[in-house]
Automatic annotation (TrEMBL):
Keywords, alphabetical: ATP-binding, Cytoplasm, Kinase, Nucleotide-binding, Transferase
Annotated InterPro entries: Cytidylate_kin, Cytidylate_kinase_dom, P-loop_NTPase
Catalytic activity: dCMP + ATP = dCDP + ADP; CMP + ATP = CDP + ADP
UniProt name for this protein: Cytidylate kinase
Family named by the database record: Belongs to the cytidylate kinase family. Type 1 subfamily.
GO molecular function terms noted in the UniProt entry: kinase activity
UniProt: ATP binding residues: G10, P11, A12, G13, A14, G15, K16, S17, T18
Keyword Signal attached: no
Subcellular location(s) of the protein: Cytoplasm
Enzyme Commission numbers on file: 2.7.4.25
Cytidylate kinase domain location: 6-217
Enzyme class: transferase
């Protein structure tokens, strides 16, 4: 079997990480969560109180001792050996990350790191600019979408299960705001690559979504 690279992009809550993880698992590929990388920088910027300082954010990225490890279908994230897997998923970090992700120098650092990670082949990488910028020659490109109501419902379930108290309406407004920031930024905005396959997951199960990506993979063999 040829080890291909699969790019999965889409807005928040479209199911990218779940689908990407399962696809990688089925194929024996490496899953790379690029959102976690941007979240790690946002988390560190908050911790150091430099979240409004673009130069400091770029510097953080250059010196980031970041490790992503996939264990039991979960991506563990450490910075300098410190486990921040849960800390990067707080609503506070989610609100900040699209602002941090607009810093050009930070994106350059991430671009290089992510391209290096994909060099051996056999990766499933999810994010916002994978098919358009990070892996423009990816063998398979998928753009996952879902209605905003459904995406908010999924995030609400996730967050309430973790004990956060947030209303569905609040979450929907936050997701809409994050999408707008990601779609309208100057560098590497969220947009489907012209050659990406669009999959709307509003009424599609995770298994069915994974199955359609595996079918695309079979066709490319
Ligand atoms: O995928 P996730 O929701 O964890 O991503 C968090 C944020 O990181 C996105 O809203 C976006 O601002 C940023 N991001 C990005 N480019 C990527 C992945 C994530 O700008 N490739």
């Amino acid at each position: 079997m040829k080890r291909l690279n699969i790019a999965i992009d889409g807005p928040a809550g479209a199911g990218k990480s779940t689908v990407a993880k399962l696809t990688a698992q089925k194929l024996g590929y490496t899953y790379i969560d690029t959102g976690a990388m941007y979240r790690a920088v946002a988390w560190q910027a908050l911790k150091k109180g430099v979240e409004h300082d673009n130069r400091a954010i770029a510097e953080l990225a250059c010196n980031l001792d970041l490790k992503l490890t996939n264990i039991d279908n979960k991506t563990n994230v450490t910075v300098a050996g410190h486990d921040i897997t849960e800390a990067i998923r707080t609503p506070e970090v989610s609100r900040l990350v699209p602002k941090v992700a607009q810093v050009g120098e930070l994106r350059e650092v991430m671009l290089k790191l992510q391209q290096d990670m994909a060099k051996p082949g056999g990766v499933v990488m999810d994010g916002r600019d994978i098919g358009t910028r990070v892996l423009p020659h990816a063998d398979i490109k998928v753009f996952l979408t879902a209605s905003i109501a459904e995406r908010a419902r999924r995030r609400w379930q996730e967050l309430t299960a973790k004990g956060y108290s947030i209303s569905l309406a609040e979450l929907e407004a936050e997701i809409a705001c994050r999408d707008k920031e990601d779609c309208e930024r100057e560098i590497a905005p969220l947009v489907a690559a012209p050659d990406a396959i669009n999959i709307d997951t509003t009424n599609l199960s995770i298994d069915a979504t994974v199955a359609s990506i595996l079918e695309l993979h079979r066709e490319k063999q």
